[in-house]
Amino acid sequence: MSFVFVNGVLSGTTDDSEKLVKSIIEDRRIGKIPKEVNVRYRKDTDSVMVNSDGGRLLRALIVVKNGKPLVSKDDVKLLAEGHINWQDLIDKGKIEYIDADEEELAFTALKEEDLTPAHTHLEITPLSVFGTQASLLPFINHSNAHRNVTAVKSVQQGVGVYTTNYLIRHDNDSMIAIDQQVPIVKTKMYDNENFNSHVFGQNIVVAVLSYLGYNMDDAIIINKSSVERGLFRAMFFRPYKVEETKYVGGQSDLITMPDKDVAGYRSEEAYKYLDEDGISAVNSHVNSGDVLIGRVSPPRFVSSIDKFRLGVQKQVESSIECRTGESGTVENVFVTSTAEGNKYISLKIRQDRKVEIGDKFGPRSGQKGVVGMLLNQEDMPFTYSGIVPDLIFSPYSIPTRMSMAYLLELIGGKVGALGGRRIDGTSFTGEKEEDLRKELMEYGFRENGVETMYNGITGEEMQVRIFVGDMTYIRLKHFVANKIQWRARGPIQLLNRQPTEGKSKSGGLRLGEMEKDCFVAYGSAMALKERFDSDKITIPVCSKCGMVSVYNVKKRTGYCPIDGEDVQIKLIEVSASFKILLDELKAVGIYPKMVLGSKV
């Protein structure tokens, strides 16, 4: 006797579980029960699982009987001519949707020629084993599965044209790539997804070799002259948004050109780009520290305690300035109002982003890497026909990653560029490697894609054949200009006197024990001192009771609140966070006595 579960709830038992499963499947195919019902028999628990709840992922498969698919060539022809539709095939039981549970019972063939009498289902197309994004990647059936997952994630980070109205949108940190191209090697999914309307990536010449050591590991070398001609150029947009906030008591912020009598007035140089309304003019080129939107605020709503002491009647400068380390051109300005009726301004900065060392790039096979060197064209290697590659890729990244799709795309792109056509790189059903090799030979090249190359610096012929081809590379959103962070000295937190945290606050990088050991090994004593000495303070301690005392620096006299003036006060150096700990212990009634000893 087997238990029967419907959507996870025990609903009955059965004496013949196999007969029950078969009858449910047959009833579903002839339309007696809904098409979304799925069933599975589990041997380990001796139970029949019937699922019909929402939220399950279902796959469409062709039903196979006696080793032959129920969808015939006549059905495909009628479907193409429009005489029948998809739903008709489902209603006739020729195609059915099964979930992950029922898929455990199915024996599915990838291609029709692989069918045997034991098979129960056939894939509609071999490409359906991938998702939509994976189907856009060429030749991935030749690569490692883990590398394909990485490739999908890498392509998701590509910079393209995410919307055609980006000029009037004020999205946070948006990026637009310039001069994008349709890939030479593409899959059938590109046509299904209308990919020509939102292309990304550029077709470039790639040489696979080690050159000058600047493309070690996953680094790449890019032709500097190609970059100067506009290769991989992109634009970065950053909006600055300000609201005239109204406060209780009738006070409010005011967006305007700050007067000189306003507390915290910067300098005339800082406000040089502001118009009379307090907003920077469009097409102004602003740098770090320049004021973009002038604003004054009531002093009580400004965080600094020094500005608070100035009095209620005095306004305080609280303008919005260009971020530290950034510059750009004012693209456009939107002036509107919020739902509460407050004035709202959004100003967008445009930055031209050329390729620089540290920027990240990747093909559609997951072999991403950062730029290790921008090399002048005269120093780049060149082929016997004078072709200079745009990018040099390290050959050591291929064997361990097993991304054969990279090499196949190089050959396919080379054939497509020579023949002036698009190459079908669809997984399982695309053009075969042997055909691409034969076509490459017809164009006068070696069938394996290698060529003789010459050293651009010495002019000598390289003693090995170099693998050269064309492929699509994508600029990824990881710009080094957005990630670079440095600090010598800078602002500290008011409470514990330690460096602030975060790039936007000019913060320091957190240094742990292991980083400290590296600094010690390199003899970086001053850097360590700045790191671990930033919150040093000197406190007076009573030598009798061990409590923090009072000390007058000018008179060099002190006294203990507990033992009076007839005790010895010693000055010791501690961290500000330790001083805070002592104060917190005293606040909860704990006696933090410090026993002072000799320094020796």
Description:
The chain is of the alpha+beta class. It folds into five domains: 2-124, Hypothetical Protein Ta0175, Chain: A, domain 2; 149-162 and 180-232 and 357-475, DNA-directed RNA polymerase, subunit 2, domain 6 (Dna-directed Rna Polymerase Ii 140kd Polypeptide, Chain: B, Domain 6, Beta Barrel); 235-353, RNA polymerase II, Rpb2 subunit, wall domain (OB fold (Dihydrolipoamide Acetyltransferase, E2P)), CATH 2.40.50.150; 485-532, no CATH class; 536-587, RNA polymerase alpha subunit dimerisation domain (DCoH-like), CATH 3.90.1800. The protein contains 16 helices and 33 strands. The radius of gyration is 35 Å and the shape is extended. The mean pLDDT is 91.
Radius of gyration: 35 Å
How is the main sheet built? 6 strands, mixed, barrel
The outline comes out as extended
What is the number of independent domains? 5
Tell me the total number of β-strands.
33
**Helix percentage range:** 10-25%
First-residue to last-residue Cα separation: 85 Å
Low-confidence runs of at least 5 consecutive residues: none
Biggest sheet strand order reads 12-26-13-24-23-29
What name does the CATH topology of the largest domain carry? Dna-directed Rna Polymerase Ii 140kd Polypeptide, Chain: B, Domain 6
Return the CATH class of the largest domain.
Answer: Mainly Beta
